[in-house]
Amino acid sequence: MRKIAFTNQKGGVGKTTTTINTGAGLSKIGFKVLLVDMDPQANLTYSLKIHSSKMKQNIYHVLKGQMSIKDVIMPHSEFDLLPASIELSGAEMELVNEPAREQILRTALKEVEDEYDFILLDCPPNLGLLTLNAFTAADELVIVLQSEYLALHGLSKLMDLIKIVQQRLNPGLKVEGIVCTLYDKRKNLNREVVGHIKEHFGSKVFNTIIRDNIALAEAPSHHKTIFEYDSQSYGAEDYMNLAKEIRNGY
Asked: Which of 20, 60, 129, 175 has the fewest CB within 10 Å, making it most exposed?
């Protein structure tokens, strides 16, 4: 069983899209997958047509110790989901005085770990307590980088946090890989940025590059994964390839 957190402190890089569709791809090749939405914006949850007004409980209630994780997990056609809501935005302040507050999620996930092959965590676009919980719970990190000029901006802070977690909380945590998203081969800038990322990180960069594809932008508005929305699209091809790379341990 592998627990993988998808992260970048910058928003709008395709992190949630990558979490959802990598999970769907892994499911399609035969794995049992759980997605965990750790973002108070709950974009992963909403993308799958699960609205907070219809939820009596979500990941917030698990972190607060008010609900069992098994009572909160929801089934989807391709995977299971641990949903989030705006309530999660208050969790960082509410949990600040809790003992071992960085390990609350890791403890909660132990209850269901044996039921899944992969648990994929969608981190919020910041480096706060919720992200720290995801890093402490995970075995591996996938850093999602947009193929744009500012892709590497602030990445040093993320790498510093990873080192702190490895030293103090989760010595087994490793960076599984870096995936480049929103790539348009017609743009010189995109090609230059990807080349720059590969120069910096070498073999840590996944071979699969997620191309900029209108179907990927449209799928969430239809509350579908890319495979449900357009299985013949570039997006479906790219995320299946990424899922296979992750399956192989890269």
From this structure: 175
